[in-house]
Amino acid sequence: MTHQQDQRSPVVLITGAAHRLGATMARHLHQRGWRVLIHCRSRRAQADALAQELNRQREGSATTLAADLADLTQVEALAQQAVDQWGRLDALINNASEFFPTPVGEASVDDWSRLLHTNLRAPFFLLQGCQAALTATRGAVINLIDIYSERPLADHPLYCASKAGLAALTRSWANDLGPAIRVNGVSPGAILWPDQDDGYRPNDDNDGNPANDDSDYRQGILRQTPLGRTGTPEDIAGAVAYLLCDAPFVTGQILSVDGGRSLSL
After folding, report:
1. Cross-referenced PANTHER family, in alphabetical order (predicted)?
2. Could you report how far apart the first and last alpha carbons of the chain are, in Å?
């Protein structure tokens, strides 16, 4: 691809793209010709390494932007930086998320702020800051939801509320922003087990939450999954790419990519 061609390539901002699902989405869309804005909070070294990897494949096609999504000022600055980087924005993927238990009676105001601000407030104001640019390109938004937005996970009321709110935003935005902007969601099932390196804080009693080393819990999830296995990050990236690139008449939908597990919840 020539430099001139790359200047016409679509641009996507992916939050939480330094590793795991976000990094896989970045690689997948980059392979399809997109320029990628890789957002991170604290994983700057990983984000920079990913950008360098992608830029070796296609010069000037990836860059990193750092922001704490729990800080509204930084969210607003991130939106402006994303639009300014290449002068256009064709897609926003709200992937970054906080995930930890908040049992009733134990949750703090700080827990509320971290979960609701990162998982719900940030996507709202990030979209608001990017709306004009997305309208100009007739762009699209993808929100990463969760099957627990509909069927709550025990001891995670704030996380579940944040994802249920994001599902509602997905449908509201699709209704309000069409026809200029399409908005859809992807709701993963068991893809990658969370771990403490990702900021997950399991309960002290090791009660079988997904992040704990509880193989019985994990096997139980797989027994509830008709396909009988975990998915892969590529499954999610493929679903995101379909909604962004191959579904021009789809908006307001939340696609479950969960091996059928939502059928038994």
Report:
1. OXIDOREDUCTASE, SHORT-CHAIN DEHYDROGENASE/REDUCTASE FAMILY (AFU_ORTHOLOGUE AFUA_5G02870), SHORT-CHAIN DEHYDROGENASE_REDUCTASE FAMILY PROTEIN
2. 46
CATH number at residue 50: 3.40.50.720
Q: Measure the CA–CA gap between 215 and 54, rounded to whole angstroms.
A: 36
Residue 24, domain extent: 3-263
Beta carbons of 40 and 96 less than 8 angstroms apart = no
pLDDT at 195: 55
Radius of gyration of the chain (CA): 18
Determine the pLDDT at residue 227: 79
Q: Which residues are catalytic?
A: 159
Q: Listing from the earlier edge strand, what are the strands of the sheet with 11-14?
A: 62-66, 35-40, 11-14, 91-94, 140-144, 182-188, 254-257
- The list of the chain residues with pLDDT below 70 reads 1-5, 191-214, 217, 265
Note the pTM of the prediction, 2 decimals: 0.90
Handedness of CA 63, 26, 68, 84 (dihedral sign): positive
